Amino acid sequence: xxxxxxxxxxxxxxxxxxxxxxSIEASSKISKGFVAQASKDKRTEAIGEEEPKSLVVxxxxxxxxxxxxxxxxxRAQQPLAL
Length: 82
What we know:
By secondary structure, the chain is of the alpha+beta class.
């Protein structure tokens, strides 16, 4: 099963760890540190040119998605079968 994160990015549902609203990055020292370390390790990826609305944490990367965390959570509950 797969989850569409926006643009042309699709991930396996089994790789998904968490979905957060992007505001968590500014409001939590722990999440800010986590994202900073992922960025330092070159494990972050911005999807598309739009303003990010959510952070999607997977086994290998942290994605900045232009799709709201609510919509992504719904998609995670009903993944795509390709």
